[in-house]
Amino acid sequence: MSEGPNHHHERAARQHAHGALTMRAAMASVTVATLLMGIKGYAAWHTGSVAMLGSLADTGLDLVASLMTLFGVRLAAQPADANHRFGHGKAEALVALFQVAVIAVSGAAIFVRASERLVTRQVTADAELGIAASVIAIAATLLLLAYQRFVIAKTGSVAIGADHIHYQSDVLLNIAVIAALILDQYIGLTGSDPLFGIAIALWLFWGGWRASIDAINQLMDKEWPDEKRRRFVESASQHVELKGLHDLRTRSSGSTDFAQFHIWMDPQMTVAKAHDVIERMEHQLAAEFPGTEILIHIDPEGQVDHPGNALVETDEFTRLKASS
Questions:
Q1: Phi, then psi, of 198 in degrees rounded to 5
Q2: Which CATH code is given to the segment(s) 226-323?
Q3: Which H/E stretch holds residue 17?
Q4: 3-class DSSP state for residue 262?
Q5: Number of other residues whose CB lies within 10 A of the CB of residue 245
Q6: CA angle, corner 253, sides to 59 and 297, nearest 5?
Q7: Which pTM value belongs to this model?
């Protein structure tokens, strides 16, 4: 059995709401990146700071990544069609991997520029302008990060999550630019500007690695975390008509989760009554796990189609049922 029409409409409504949120977050990223490009470009031209130039290059790459994010979340928000029956959610994971590549390129560019600057020992100029530009960039980025956190909490979007890591790095990058300009121009430590640039590049590499994990897990259809699977089984065990649960399979695609499993029921139960039981179960699971598409297969009590971990899951179900 699969979800009924009411569940389908509810899920479609949630996906539409999530899609609208992620698209607004992506548009906000594009707007902020465009604004910062202009500010940092002017400041880099006047200061000659390699840290500021690296920040400008990073923002340029952020703009490209944000445009890709906008495309990805827009595609992921499209409803399922004849060729993509499970929806387009994995577009977000593909975009997130592209963003990881952008983060890596950005980090490499900053690292190279900083290394060259360590050799040339060039001194920066107009530190006040560079500091003012960085302060404006920090304020705009903090506002964007707050909105992205709100959207991620609501949707679980991996594409917006990867974009969030970009802009987290931008805050540190701009703080580093301020510190580098102060140390380089006011205190006379000419090596501080490139050293800060190298530290930022290494931080970007680490952030890119972290951002890639969720995207790869979604593309590889990794199972839900053990705690979430346990809560799912515990919720299903509340129904007295169920005699067992096995062959639970879970995965995530964009902001949509998928769960399919077999249940044991009384072989003498009528199809109509079994349907009513499944409907109640779907309503309960949908309330506790919103955004989840559920597929349930009914087996007569005692039948196991796929031996293996089925008995382990059934034992866990029985234990939870007994304790409830």
A1: -65, -45
A2: 3.30.70.1350
A3: helix 5-47
A4: strand
A5: 24
A6: 175
A7: 0.57
Show the tokens assigned to 136.
């404006």
DSSP string of 130-148, one letter each residue: HHHHHHHHHHHHHHHHHHH
**Residue whose C-alpha is closest to residue 151's, from 238, 24, 275:** 24
Residue type, 295: L
CB 206 within 8 A of CB 112: no
pLDDT digits (tens, 9 = 90+) for 151-196: 888 877 777 877 787 788 778 778 877 887 788 777 777 777 777 7
Edge to edge, the sheet with strand 244-253 lists 244-253, 256-265, 292-300
List, in order, residues 6 or more apart from 31 with CB less than 8 Å away.
none
DSSP state of 122: P
Domain ranges (residues) in the chain = 5-219, 226-323
Q: What is the DSSP letter of 93?
A: H
Instruction: Output the six-digit token pair for 189.
Output: 């430590």
SS3 category, 271: helix
Of 3.30.479.30, 1.20.1250.20, 3.30.470.20, 1.20.1510.10, which CATH number belongs to 5-219? 1.20.1510.10
Look-up of token digits 């202009």? 38
Angle at 305 between CA 300 and CA 306, to 5 degrees: 145
How sure is the predictor about 246, in pLDDT bands with cuts at 50, 70 and 90?
confident
